[in-house]
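User: Here's a chain of 245 residues. Predict its fold as tokens.
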Amino acid sequence: MFGKWYESTCIKIEAVNDTVRRFWLRLPVEAVAFKAGQFVTLDLPISQRRTQRWRSYSIASAVADVAIAPNVIELVIVRLENGAGTTYLFDQFKEGDVVKVREPQGQFVLNEAHLQEELCFVCTGTGVAPFRSMLREISAKKLVDAPMHLIFGTRYEEGLLYRAEFEALAAANENFHYYPVLSRASAADWTGHRGYVHAVYEELFRDKRPANFYLCGWNIMLDEAKERLKNMGYTPQQIIMESYG
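Assistant: Prediction complete.
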């Protein structure tokens, strides 16, 4: 298969909650050239067959972060029930272990033509990873002057990945707006959006003004969002998607 493979070392693992962990991998210097939104593939020791060992994850860190932590990328991974790859990563993989990583790939990257237009990022769960990379890159390089929106859906409040970071970005940048959405919020003091992400972007863009939508998550969310946005009058060129399966 195309793409070079490199030996990488896990330098840190951090549990976010019971089902999500952050992993930091140190790669050779020539392997860390990537664009925000791309993914890497890990070759995990879970099968004799090569392609059954491969698992791909979006890079959650930005290119600009490499200057701070040389040759290091961050992945945020959710444990899948009966998933061979995540079972290994959660139960056996540890700091100091070495894993083969294929060079960054993928076309889910910011279109330069969109950088001066309104952007809306819509995601669920760990689908926030490529958007975190994009937003860190945009912020570090001051790439966008137009309004940006991050609509992030998850079940419970503890699933709001990078919450403090996004809240700080919204406080510091008047053009960035953060909308956490909880589908199973139980806390009486939760004052944010409840339900699903679709109602939020439909309300935000009810005037159907020009915008570009980047979507990342499971197929069921993507399919519904694509159909709703098309019904709102947005074209396929304005809807860019990345599926997590």
